[in-house]
Design the sequence.
């Protein structure tokens, strides 16, 4: 599939290509997936996304399948275990944010019925479509990511600055930032509704 047009960042790394072609920008409506991307995007801060994709399975195992209810109950012993796990990004602040975010995530679910019901109104209920022809045109944050970031912070979430939140929005399909020449751009223009 090398001759298929893709966004520049996908390159030829099989892990990146698979993520680009199968996940990035695809609208999700599953709360466990939202929690997974919230964790992974927070872990990625200051690192390459390739590093995080390479550690994804270790995160899945360590965080009990990205179950926010289980992660919310993590205590000091669990945090020590995570900090000693070489499969994870062993940053104390990032590790410590995971149970905090899990508890905040559960609060959002209680208030809105699901995290999905909470997050989609920030883009009017349908993916925002960028019309970018070059990677340099794709923003690192937007007014919507600023607003969502502020609201997440107000609700007690950590590692949710506007740039991280915009990456979350891209990953979860709240925005379609595939370049217009990318094969996924048109495929995602008419996403299936829930």
Sequence:
């Amino acid at each position: 599939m090398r001759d298929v047009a893709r966004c520049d960042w996908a390159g030829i790394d099989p892990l990146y290509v698979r993520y680009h072609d199968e996940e990035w920008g695809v609208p999700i409506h599953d709360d466990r997936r939202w929690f997974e991307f919230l964790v992974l995007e927070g872990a990625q801060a200051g690192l390459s996304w390739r590093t995080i994709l390479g550690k994804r399975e270790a995160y899945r195992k360590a965080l009990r399948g990205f179950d926010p209810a289980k992660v919310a109950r993590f205590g000091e012993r669990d945090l020590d275990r995570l900090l000693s796990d070489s499969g994870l990004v062993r940053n104390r602040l990032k590790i410590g944010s995971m149970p905090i975010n899990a508890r905040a995530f559960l609060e959002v679910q209680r208030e809105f019925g699901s995290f999905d019901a909470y997050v989609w109104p920030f883009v009017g209920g349908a993916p925002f479509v960028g019309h970018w022809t070059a990677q340099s045109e794709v923003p690192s944050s937007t007014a919507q990511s600023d607003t969502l970031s502020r609201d997440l912070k107000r609700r007690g979430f950590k590692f949710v600055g506007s740039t991280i939140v915009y990456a979350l929005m891209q990953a979860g399909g709240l925005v379609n930032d595939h370049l217009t020449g990318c094969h996924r751009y048109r495929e995602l223009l008419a996403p299936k509704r829930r």
The first strand starts at residue 128 and ends at 129. The domain at 8-187 is CATH 1.10.340.30 (Endonuclease III; domain 1).
